[in-house]
Write a structure and sequence with these properties.
The protein is α+β, with helices and mostly antiparallel strands. 24% of the residues lie in helices and 29% in strands. Strand 4 and strand 5 form a beta hairpin. It has an 18-stranded antiparallel beta sheet that branches. It has a five-stranded parallel beta sheet with strand order 27-21-20-19-30. Strands 22-26-25 form a three-stranded antiparallel beta sheet, with no helix packed on it.
Length: 606
């Protein structure tokens, strides 16, 4: 049997006899669907789906690809029992290893992609998992930041990633979108938490697991180049309508006190750090204090914030402050937040706040932005800081929701992102940008900073790869973690600090902290000084960035028109250059001549 149907403007040729509703015989061939751009082959002895383009496999599910969990037990999907086609839709049924439980797989074909979803009949699953053979599609990219901040594999299949809390509420900047060197793409259509594993344990699989109370739904893109797959994705999730960051903040560095001072955040220390920067000609548009005014001892450590603002202004810096929705039990207004019901609730007992252990070991709650009163309370506090304390802007450092907590009645994860981004948009983010997951709030055009990285060349390598990963899932105005790294590691070496500054000078924004004039080692308390050449190299990097600023600004305007990322891998522009798909840090010759701007490379340099 052979017939042709229309899929948009493209004709689809559907070949292969229809399977009946009875169990498929072992000698039945695959169900094959041919379109002008690609071919789908659905195996019948064990349900698998293979995508073929120009005679070459470009994406294939793995053997035993479809699995489901009921309680603590995993089960597998077995042979195909029937298929029917209506127009551009293909429906396949399959048996499972549970009597009376079957799978219903539906595929909707379009000219450059197909939608695929599957669900159970006869039982309710707690989780549905689809596995792909990574090698079938070449190399894999996308997803965004690794939950392990110390390493960022590029391509993803060159390492191992496990993220059991992959979610719109993630602190990592992530999106359920992956693309491959063979120009296919996968987008999971869900706003619920996922379990994502890429090459876990070196198994060569991409495993994507969703909760089972709704079908496992996804879109598979089939294109000529990875850049076209990216554009298909952006057409779905949106592109920036504007840049929330003004030109000056692209052109000059933002200095944040975290990696410079860590737990020694005091007015005296911040001012001494800023004076040393200005004295060395290391300018910038703002100095942000990595501390919250709600800290119980903030007034002791910063007795005159308006005075600090004036003193920083005389040095050429605006004053910025850290802020977040996190509310530790030690906060000065924690009781007020609890008494008024301003925090997310405990799902087991909604009369209590949802408390969890934060990065510093403290019990912490999260302000509930879906509660109008809580949102107004938080907003009023930020406005008071700007009007009364001389604060010009904020580093928003927070997730807007936590999956361990209960949402406000009637609110969804998408609502929390909406409220959070609308709130942040009322204030100057000073180029620090916002960390938002799941391709939310693109239209607002926030800058995006990647997560903390180690203060090593490996950290720099991870930082560069992370900026590429974040930029190519839809956040084009991206910057690395603080130049030189953070994570409470010992300070970076001269080579790491200078190379990181040089790398950041070529990125859309420069986000700085560790001063090349010297820094105290947070692990030992000892002062670590850098030589004059370090200062000179850092200053040269800043000047390089300033010279590139008009070009960067042109790229910002181009992104607003096209949606294409500013930072992108070489293969976006040179898709036929096979070597460009695996460009990584290279070991350079240790014998290279040592002179300003040309440091010896005794380690792998990103």
């Amino acid at each position: 049997m052979r017939r042709t149907v229309r899929c948009g403007s493209a004709a689809l040729v559907l070949a292969t006899p229809l399977l009946g509703t009875a169990p498929a015989a072992a000698d039945n061939g695959p169900v094959t669907v041919t379109t002008p751009a690609y071919q789908l082959r659905v195996a019948t002895d064990r349900l698998t789906v293979t995508t073929v383009r120009a005679g070459r496999t470009v994406l294939a599910t793995a053997p035993a690809a479809f699995r489901f969990r009921i309680g603590s037990d995993w089960h597998i999907v077995r042979e195909v029992t029937g298929s029917t086609r209506t127009g551009n839709s293909l429906r396949v049924t399959a048996a499972t290893d549970l009597p009376g439980v079957t799978v219903d797989l539906r595929i909707t074909l379009r000219s450059d992609r197909y939608d695929m979803n599957w669900s159970l009949s006869g039982a309710r699953a707690d989780a549905l998992s689809t596995a792909y053979d990574l090698g079938s599609a070449g190399h894999w990219y996308g997803q965004g930041e690794n939950s392990d901040q110390t390493v960022q594999p590029w391509p993803l299949d060159s390492g191992q990633l496990v993220d059991t809390g992959f979610s719109p509420a993630s602190y990592q900047v992530v999106s359920p979108f992956w693309y491959t060197s063979r120009a296919t793409g996968l987008r999971a259509d869900t706003n619920d938490p996922m379990d994502v594993r890429i090459n876990s344990g070196g198994n060569g699989l991409g495993e994507f697991t969703v909760t089972g109370d709704r079908p496992a739904a996804s879109t598979v893109f089939v294109e000529d180049t990875p850049a076209e797959v990216y554009r298909d994705h952006i057409a779905l999730v949106g592109k920036p309508a504007r840049s929330d960051t003004p030109y000056e903040q692209y052109a000059t560095p933002l200095w944040n006190s975290w990696a410079q001072l860590y737990g020694e955040q005091t007015q005296e220390n911040v001012l001494a750090w800023a004076r040393a920067l200005a004295g060395a000609g290391l300018g910038g548009h703002a100095v942000q204090v990595e501390e919250s005014v709600i800290a119980s001892d903030f007034g002791e450590r910063f007795p005159d914030l308006p005075g600090l603002s004036r003193q920083l202004g005389a040095l050429g810096f605006d004053l910025g402050m850290w802020t977040g929705l996190y509310m530790p039990e030690t906060a000065a207004n924690f009781s007020e937040a609890v008494d008024n019901g301003y925090l997310l609730k405990n799902p087991a007992d909604p009369s209590k706040p949802c408390l969890f252990t934060w990065w510093n070991g403290r019990q912490t709650g999260l302000i509930d932005l879906a509660n109008p009163a809580a949102r107004q309370w938080y907003t009023d506090d930020l406005k008071a800081q700007t009007s009364e304390l001389g604060v010009a802007g904020f580093k928003f450092d927070t997730a807007f929701f936590d999956d361990r907590c209960a949402p406000y009645p009637g609110a969804t994860r998408a609502d929390y992102v909406k409220y959070g981004t609308e709130l942040a948009d009322e204030f100057d983010q000073q180029g620090a940008g916002l960390r938002v997951a799941w391709n939310a709030a693109q239209a607002k055009g926030f800058a995006t900073r990647t997560a903390d990285k180690p203060t090593t060349f490996a950290g720099l390598r991870a930082a560069v790869s992370a900026t590429l990963a974040v930029s190519t899932i839809g956040y084009p105005f991206v910057e690395t973690d603080m130049i030189g790294g953070s994570l409470s590691y010992p300070p970076p070496t001269k080579q790491v600090l200078a190379r990181w500054a040089q790398a950041a000078s070529l990125m859309p924004l420069m986000y700085a902290s560790t001063s090349p004039t010297g820094v105290r080692d947070a692990t030992t308390g000892e002062w670590v000084g850098y030589d004059r050449e370090t200062v000179d190299l850092y200053r040269q990097a800043i000047k390089t960035h300033e010279r590139l600023a008009p070009y960067i600004w042109d790229q910002v305007q181009s992104t607003l028109k096209t949606g294409d990322p500013i930072m992108r891998p070489l293969f976006f522009d040179f898709p036929k250059d096979e070597a460009s798909y695996t460009v990584r840090a290279r070991r350079t010759e240790a014998r290279r001549r040592h002179h300003p701007g040309h440091l010896p490379a005794d380690r792998n340099v990103a």
